[in-house]
Prior knowledge:
The chain is 80% helix and 0% strand. It is an all-alpha fold. The protein has a single domain (73-79, 87-180, 226-442), classed as Sodium:dicarboxylate symporter (Proton glutamate symport protein, Orthogonal Bundle), CATH 1.10.3860.10. The longest helix has 40 residues, at 47-86. The radius of gyration is 23 Å and the shape is globular.
Amino acid sequence: MQNINKNLTLHILIAMVLGVIVGRLFSLGVSETDDTLINLFVLNLSLKEFFVEGLFNVGGSIFITSLKMLVVPLVFISLVCGVCSLNDSAKIGRLGAKSIGLYLFTTAIAITFAISIALIISPGEGMNLTPAQDYQAKQAPSFAQVVIDMFPSNPINAMAEGNMLQIIVFSLLFGVAMALSGSAGARIASLFEDLNKVVMRMVTILMGLAPYGVFCLMAKLFTYLELAEITQLAQYFVTVLLVLFVHALITYPSLMILLGKLNPLPFLIKMKDTLMFAFSTASSNATMPITLNTVTKKLGANNSVASFTIPLGATVNMDGTAIMQGVATVFIAQVYGIDLSFADYVAVLITATLASVGAAGVPGVGLILLAMVFQQVGLPVEGIALILGVDRLLDMTRTAVNVTGDAAVTCLIAKSEQQLDESAFNASDKQLELIEENNSKTV
């Protein structure tokens, strides 16, 4: 399996590029008014329907479904193993406080950067765009209701529905009960350790098939992606991308240096595979198995910490979404000619930061939070329709930033808990392979 994953980064990158090229070629046949030879060829022989709607759609869907298939068993098994190994309920509370505190802190930094840079660039100045469609905002649940809904009445149902917060709570309780159950708990714990190894092996197998899934996803996406909308909203698009890169390449490395005394360069290098998974899937939950594998196997974070912080981060860490909200607020205000005061921007900062936890696990959470922010400062919610066309591509980049934040916070908390193997953190991929080979020979 090591040989399969040896050049995984290169293979995924090639798959992404080929997917984009193939998708754009097929997009030439999408317009029925384009009377070109390639259009006639594609339409008459139904190649687009066979490949894009058939082969690419099936391949990409199976890949995403396979990733999501591993999420619930991985979170439950890994978190139970981690909590059971802690043997200290106070430590669990400490991990929770540190995790949520750091996630909220990075989210606040993200939206502050977003608003500040957007005000400097002014992406919406002089634009007179009109919404292409009406947007009906969904009602976000109250914070009290979110807290109540964290506790499952039926844990099996929670797992079936993929409700991460409920799964996390049940796993914590189950792990604590195992730790307190003496010999009976120890026997079950050994079973869970074996199950954890099996699930992680499934993750490794799936990583070997990733280039094929990534190619299918990118080919289908770029067949239907409207580049004209990106051109029309170029300033907004570039501003969001700029802030995302600033946050990923400056904020997280700075925190790792200041709070953890860690070198961020090995961290960023080892995250490359995970980032490409996140970009191609546009789902933090789907990428979770890969993220957990990276922070434990490559970055040296102990599973007792990572099994708690990674699922929690995939659920409540909304740094990328917060950046979109900050830039979108400035953009829509400028497009509609609405002047927002300093107090309004402070309200946006507080609302978006706290709501990132309050709306955790809600489908379409990014747009729900954006609607909440717009309502808070009196912006027209229908303005969200303006940015929907380019949001799919930006969502892919936002997910990569969110995943980077999950891993960075995990390393920081593991370091603070003395649960980070810094020799593994700083080791190169080749050194880690040698260590793994030596360990397997020893076993």
